[in-house]
Amino acid sequence: MESAIALRPIDPELGEVLDGALRQRAVLAQVAALAAQAGELIFVGAGGSWASSVPAHFLLNHSESPVRCQNIQSGEFITAPPPQLGARTVVVASSHTGSTPETVEAANLARRRGAVTVSLARDADNPLANASQWHLTYGSDRTITPAKHMLLGQLVEFLCSGSGQLSQEVIDTYDRLPSALQDASVQSEPWLSDLAVEIGRHDTAFVLGSGPNFGLSYLLSMCYLMEMQWMNSACFNSGEFFHGAFEMAQEGTPLVGPLGEGDTKPPGELAVRFLCTYVGSPLVLDSRDLAFSGVLASARPRIAHMGMSIMIARLIEHLEFVRQHDLGQRRYMHKVEY
Questions:
Q1: Buried b / exposed e across 205-241, counting CB within 10 Å, b at 16+?
Q2: What are the tens digits of pLDDT across the range 182-221?
Q3: Which burial class, exposed, middle or buried, applies to 289 when counting CB atoms under 10 A from its CB (0-12, 13-18, 19+)?
């Protein structure tokens, strides 16, 4: 008889991992200077690594920075590379293990074209790092997306500053985040336990998201629910929910809506109001419920997705326990060639 899967404790190294992202600020400043000089920044990744770059891509493209930014799936980057790819491009390629074949190939292609290549991975001893000139690391197998958000968020802040220097407000905000996000992980524990029980009662779940949170919605649906829990799931932009997807909304099918704090919050709130009126209460994760101790209210819209990433990463661990489905169980990934 197989032993039951126990609920994992909150990652005891969470704060240390996030502090490690702060200690790479000097490297991030150099990468930002190269991107500012080049004028073109491209994030490349697949699956959760592509999704992890969504907030940085969104925030940079909605700033006054003159640096153009794209977020491209690795396979598409290889088969249809951007025509401007070359010496005036910085490519940040992300893969947790640094061994995702299409992402490694994308970095090699970028380097052959003369682009500056930066790896974002667990460590700097892997094929992706070998294909890159600069390296960003986080050294954890559990605190992954929040650490990537910390690193890429600071990179964006450098590019948005206009001077290549971070303001004291930005420095203070990021320096307080490891402690604030540790507190958020404890604060949200009872909500996530209840949410996992509700989701775990079903085999299907839809996920909505917009703006910086869309990447997290995609991550939850594609990587966590489908890949790691073998559930039927789909992710929709909150605004697009009303152009087809809402016809599938019915009682008994969980619909999870991560709500953020920026300008793209209203479409999610509209979807929540619709569901409350016609179907029943949706399952809402709202970063506004997090204290973010020490973080100025004015800074919250730019970092709120990091609190959401902490909650979503922990939610899947609760689902593993509720559904008794090991997060590492796979049918095909790392088992067959593709």
A1: bbbbbbbbbbbbbbbbbbbbbbbbbebebebbbbeeb
A2: 999 999 999 999 999 999 999 999 999 999 999 999 999 9
A3: middle
pLDDT at res. 2:
66
Helix count and strand count (H, E) for the chain = 13, 9
Separation CA 301–CA 265 (nearest Å) = 10
Q: Which of 3, 5, 11, 2 is nearest to 229 (CA)?
A: 5
Q: What gap in Å lies between CA 207 and CA 197, rounded to an integer?
A: 16
Q: Which of 191, 205, 207, 199 is nearest to 268 (CA)?
A: 207
Instruction: Give the pLDDT confidence score for residue 25 in this predicted structure.
Output: 97
Residues (pLDDT < 50) of the chain are 1
Interhelix angle 168-187/145-161, rounded to 10 degrees, is 160
- Contact indicator for 96, 49 with CB cutoff of 8 Å: yes
For 97, 101, 122, 238, the CA distances from 126, given in Å and listed in that order, are 7, 11, 9, 37
Indicate the SS3 state at residue 8. Answer: coil
The kind and range of the H/E element at 43 are strand 40-45
Q: In the beta sheet, which residues pair with residue 228?
A: none
Instruction: For helices 14-22 and 168-187, give the axis angle rounded to 10 degrees.
Output: 170
Nearest to 53 by CA among 33, 36, 77, 34: 77
